[in-house]
Amino acid sequence: MLKSIKSKILALLLLAVAVLIVTNLIAVVAARQSQAKQLNIALYDSAMANSKMIDERIRRHIDRLSVLANTATVQGDDIASTKSYLLFEHKRNLDQEGYYFDLIAAIEPDGSSFDINGDKVEVYDRVYFQEVLAGKDLVISEPIFSRSGGKISVAIATAVKKDGKLVRVLMGMMSLEKLSDEIITMKHGENGRAYMIDDRGTCLAHQDKTLLGLDFTRENGPITAEMANMVQLMLATKTGAAEYSFRGVNSILNYQQIPSTGWFLGIVADRSEVFAEINRLTSLLAVIIFITTLLLLVLGWRFTGKTVQPISELVDATRRIAQGDLETKIAVHTDDEIGHLAQSFERMRLDTKDLISNIALAGNRVSDIARVLAIKADQTAETVKTKVIPADTASSAAGKETKELTGIADERLSEMDRGQQGIDNVVSTMREIEKSANQVTLSISTLNQAIDDVGAFVDAINAIAGQTDKLAEEAAIEATRAGEAGKGFAVVADEVRKLAESSSESAAEISRLISRVVSEVQQQSAASLEDGKKKMPRNERVMQHINQSLVAITGLVQDLSEKAKEVAEAAEEVGIADQDADKDIISRPG
Asked: Which of 187, 238, 289, 462 could form a disulfide with 192 if both were Cys (CB 3.0 to 4.6 A apart)?
């Protein structure tokens, strides 16, 4: 699995090269197929055209013999005239293109003959002569060696008849060398070949004259088994295409049959020559691809090296930074995205270095502060230890005093109830004021004493409220010093402070009410006693007013008693919270 950027880039380059190679291979294969198709068409057209041309020329030779055979001169008995006439016609056509006869001879039925040169020709044992004697009008022989000239030729024999009777045989010896010279020009390309065989596979025309007359259907010498099989295929199929190897040359063949003779003309192209341009192009492409691949790999290696090296340096730098090395400078100077990234990393390194330096300085300061706080914490713990006991004592004392105050309040309420009952009795016996004046004086004295006691009770409440307020403030200060552990304690202390303030306000209200009552009682009591007899109704109204005031005072005292109980409970909570804060502070380390 590829992990590095360099290997990935090189892999992409190799992939691009592979795509280039595959594309060129496809193009080369397509070009070869197109070239092969065009070649087959060209060979087919050439074989068809040339086979028709040869067929026409052979037909002309046959027609010439037929025309000569039908002339009176050739049919006549004057052999000398016949000889002269044939010589004249031969020379007349000798320079014409496509004239293949080497000689023309007139053969008597007994086999004696002479050619146009006057030489005797012995052909009685020739197959073609015997076939004409047997009744055929036209016979084309297989390749034979001329007995007169020793050249390999093909004899075309036609019957010369007069009045339906065979008088002689007219024979023309068609030179295969001349035919070969004509056919070899039909080759395809410089290295191609063209040859002709008869219907038995015997070579009639070939650029290699040593092959003339050789049976191509049999493996012999230069005729390989592959070629022999191919020639047999030609004879069987009459027309078509084939590929074979001849003398080490890969050959592409197209063959056509010549209708007039049944012979076969083969047009051969040399594969290496036909595809030479494509092969050269393929080789050139291979060289170009090789050089391109080499250049791409070299340039890709150098490019990826230059590209990856800054990235590797950045990776190393990040590893060093991760390991704590902030001193090594990131030295990447490329003016591209990687260079910009390196500059950003360098700025980050410097910023990180400064940040860590600042953190180190801050850490030192924090350490100093921590040491100071530790000392302060120890001192605070000691102070708390010394403060806890007085605070507990104060809380307990406050609770105790509050309870005592509550008891006093209950007692004063009872006394006020009794005073109220006395006033009721005074009211009921006001008509007997003369008899109970002393009792009224005593009741007023008792009332004054109760009012004084209530005033003392109010003063005690004010004192407790003040002491509780101070205790709450001290508790809030200690809670602030205790930190998180003192938050609950601070809340309770604040509630106690608020309750103390409320109690103080209630006590002040009671004090004002008592002062007013005392003033009224003092103002009215003397006058009431002196003219009690004369102003009985007025005294009765005064007593009723006093009774209402006592009822109001009783209600206020009851409220104050309830608040005193709340103060006691709050004082207990302060004591408990103070003890918890003390335990937390003492248990904290350092």
From this structure: 187
